[in-house]
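Chapter review: from sequence to fold.
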Amino acid sequence: MTNFKQVSNYLHSSMLNSDYSRRRPFTMATKDKIQIDIDSEIRKRAETNLQMNGISLTHLLQTIITSIADNQTSPSPTITEADLLASIDEVLNALNGKEELESYTTLDALNKGLSN
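The token string follows.
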């Protein structure tokens, strides 16, 4: 669970700010496109797993990029590509019922869990 906690700690620290949820983060005067190269099978698996939770790949990426932009932070240098891939695998395993992730019922409990 350490890998998922490392990545989620980075993402949640900015996304859980009370101000974040009250804004409309994707309203922009102009829009840019970002293009990445990824194995088509990996993309299909990711989209399938995200769709089961009502999230599109585009929305996930917009949320992450907006979070980084709004908080003027960059991805933590302590999170390596291997850590990120391992955490994605952990989430996919949880979504497929192969592994159970910790859950939290309050924001305080989540923040405490992320700080461990």
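Two observations follow directly from the output. The two ends are 11 Å apart (CA to CA). The chain has six helices and no strands.
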